[in-house]
Specification:
By secondary structure, this protein is of the alpha/beta class. It folds into two domains: 125 residues, 3-Layer(aba) Sandwich (D-Maltodextrin-Binding Protein, domain 2), CATH 3.40.190; 97 residues, D-Maltodextrin-Binding Protein, domain 2, CATH 3.40.190.10. It contains nine helices and eleven strands. Strands 5, 6, 7, 8, 9 and 10 form a six-stranded mixed sheet that branches. The protein has a five-stranded mixed sheet with strand order 2-1-3-11-4. Strand 1, helix 2 and strand 2 form a beta-alpha-beta unit. The longest helix has 16 residues. It is globular.
Amino acid sequence: MLRWLCLSIVCCYSAFAQDKFEVLAVEYPPFTTSKAADDGLAFLVLRQAFPAYKFKPLMVPPKRAYNMIQNGQWCMSFYPGSEGVATDKLVLSEQAIKIGLVRLRQQEPFTWTDLDELVGLHIALLRSGEDSPFASRFYQAGLVVTFTETIQQSMDLVMRQRVDIAMYDDYNFMQLPAALREKLQFSDSMLLQTPITLFINPHCNNLLPRAIQLRLVPSVKDKAAAAH
């Protein structure tokens, strides 16, 4: 672990010294995608916020992104760190993206208070570690998890009735063709709401330009350490 951390920091130093930043990301259009000239909406907003610097995406599958963050092999990422991994945050948008669930349309409202109300349902999630805290929430609630590489794959599984529900966001849902949206139902309850956020490995903070350091929201662990 220490060896990987040292290598990560050395790589970061080389990149930051030239005002170039490698940003870990997964295919999650329109926010992060190798199929767009600007690499997606999240990269566009990041570059607009810091035009003096260059940001290069490192697109990897979700499972690899998860493992890289768990092992400390990263400095910047649009893929969120899991619980237990210290991450500082750089918030890039005021409007929050709502992450919920989508299913084939039914007459009943699509709501829940606790996930265990969905016990027995098959759910499609972007791939992470099977033991990740996020995925564990669904296992513990009694759902059957199918991992996918993209949200498009998740939607396809719902439409083909291979799963009952899939994790999805309100922005992408509203971009679907109207005829398709009529067949689907986006949940009233939310898994989470979050603005476009760049996650920073705290071990790299001293290598960041001052302009970025000033906008960082420290991790909970960092705040606790500062209090002492």
